[in-house]
């Protein structure tokens, strides 16, 4: 089921939570809505799910306008950050719930419910917990059950709002991979809200980066990381160094007085001698090895701003550096944004 959103707006009082959103979600894709707190991700998800109404704009499911349909009629499954499992029901009954409350003529018989629930519990690899209560599960297990419950009614669209937000880092990581594999099996059109860039890049087919109610960029994880469209995306996804033209960064030449060059830490070369006449003389301030990379912080003469550089361990070992070394740096890749474009 594809989703089309055209010129969608939503205002809360005088605050514009969604500002002219245009978005096409392809059938069967897993899309991440990524952005800082308050950028409008949840509002957009709630409008798609029918829990909130847009002020203006279009919302189509497979070409059909669904704005007049209530949440139930939209055939959408939800998973939220705070597991909304029923505490007094077993895992089995939680997953069966959506089937049992269907109108009589659509409701499967008891044998069919049993078959479907066990099939779903197997899918999320937790059938062995079917007679437990939510309080007897770990947070990660609860979220997998919440997903099984959302899938029970065979939704055409799955909406996940920070589903792993309340879990610790290790469990989060495992569940992300698990969700990706599950999606590859089921291919339900899914929208996943997160403020965690690593999560979005790892899980999604495409990422929608949002800021202040607007879409800054839509692209594959590779595109948004390697070719950020705006200063905001550069800074929100991954680390970046800013070189201001007023500080005489040679790479901003031919741009205005207020131009800024954006450079990723791993896109900077370090050398004992100037690489060419655009090389910047700097002093090494700090060297720190972190796993397979070495982080080197340098500063230009008379500047208190540190420039962060990442080298592979091999590269560092071939030409080791120490604090106090005078070296030259030059970006291999960068992008200049003009005055007024900054985030
Ligand atoms: N019902 C509401 N009434 C008034 N303001 C609201 C309402 N819902 C959301 N907002 C405001 O709209 C803006 C967008 O909120 P939204 O929840 O969509 O952001 P978000 O990106 O999901 O943030 P978070 O990650 O913190 O949940 C926020 O400034 C929020 O305070």
Principal-axes shape call: elongated
Main sheet strand line-up: 6-7-8-3-9-10
Count of runs of 4 or more consecutive helical residues: 9
Helix content: 25-40%
What is the CA–CA distance across the termini? 35 Å
> From the alpha-carbon coordinates, what is the Rg to the nearest angstrom?
25 Å
Structural class: alpha+beta
Strand proportion: 25-35%
Count the E strands.
Answer: 18
The biggest sheet, with number of strands, parallel, antiparallel or mixed sense and barrel status, is:
6 strands, mixed
Mean pLDDT: 91
Sequence of secondary-structure elements: EEEHEEEHHHEHEHEEHHEEEEEEHEE
Unreliably modeled segments: none
Give the distinct bound molecules: adenosine-5'-triphosphate
Pfam family, one: ABC_tran
InterPro entries: AAA+_ATPase, ABC_SmlMolc_Importer, ABC_transporter-like_ATP-bd, ABC_transporter-like_CS, Mo/tungstate-bd_C_term_dom, P-loop_NTPase, Sulph_transpt1, TOBE-like
GO molecular function: ABC-type sulfate transporter activity; ATP binding; ATP hydrolysis activity
Protein name: Sulfate/thiosulfate import ATP-binding protein CysA 2
What structural keywords apply?
transport; 343 residues; five-stranded antiparallel beta sheet; nucleotide-binding; single chain; elongated; six-stranded mixed beta sheet; sulfate transport; binds adenosine-5'-triphosphate; 26% helix; 31% strand; ABC_transporter-like_CS; ABC-type sulfate transporter activity; alpha+beta
């Amino acid at each position: 089921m594809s989703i089309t959103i055209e010129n969608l707006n939503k205002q809360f009082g005088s605050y514009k939570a969604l500002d002219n959103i245009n978005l096409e979600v392809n059938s069967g894709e897993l899309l991440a809505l990524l952005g800082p707190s308050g950028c409008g991700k949840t509002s957009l998800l709630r409008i798609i799910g029918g829990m909130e109404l847009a002020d203006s704009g279009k919302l189509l499911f497979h070409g059909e306008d669904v704005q007049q349909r209530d949440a139930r009629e939209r055939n959408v499954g939800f998973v939220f950050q705070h597991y909304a499992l029923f505490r007094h029901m077993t895992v089995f009954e939680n997953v069966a719930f959506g089937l049992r409350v269907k109108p009589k003529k659509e409701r499967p018989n008891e044998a069919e419910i049993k078959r479907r629930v066990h099939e779903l519990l197997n899918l999320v690899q937790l059938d062995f917990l079917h007679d437990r209560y939510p309080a007897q599960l770990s947070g990660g297990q609860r979220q997998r059950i919440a997903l099984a419950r959302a899938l029970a009614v065979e939704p055409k669209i799955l909406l996940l709002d920070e589903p792993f937000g309340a879990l610790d880092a290790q469990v989060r990581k495992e569940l992300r991979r698990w969700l990706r594999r599950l999606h590859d099996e089921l291919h339900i059109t899914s929208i996943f809200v997160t403020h965690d860039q690593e999560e979005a890049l790892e899980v999604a087919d495409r990422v929608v980066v949002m800021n202040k109610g607007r879409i800054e960029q839509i692209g594959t994880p590779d595109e948004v990381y390697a070719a950020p469209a705006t200063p905001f995306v550069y800074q929100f996804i991954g680390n970046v160094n800013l070189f201001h033209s007023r500080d005489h960064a040679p790479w901003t030449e031919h741009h205005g007085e207020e131009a800024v060059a954006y450079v990723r830490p791993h896109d900077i070369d370090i050398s004992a001698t100037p690489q060419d006449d655009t090389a910047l003389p700097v002093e090494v301030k700090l060297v720190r090895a972190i796993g397979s990379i070495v982080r080197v912080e340098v500063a230009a003469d008379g500047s208190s701003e540190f420039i962060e550089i990442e080298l592979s361990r091999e590269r560092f070992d071939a030409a080791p550096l120490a604090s106090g070394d005078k070296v030259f740096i030059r970006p291999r890749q960068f992008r200049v944004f003009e005055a007024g474009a900054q985030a």
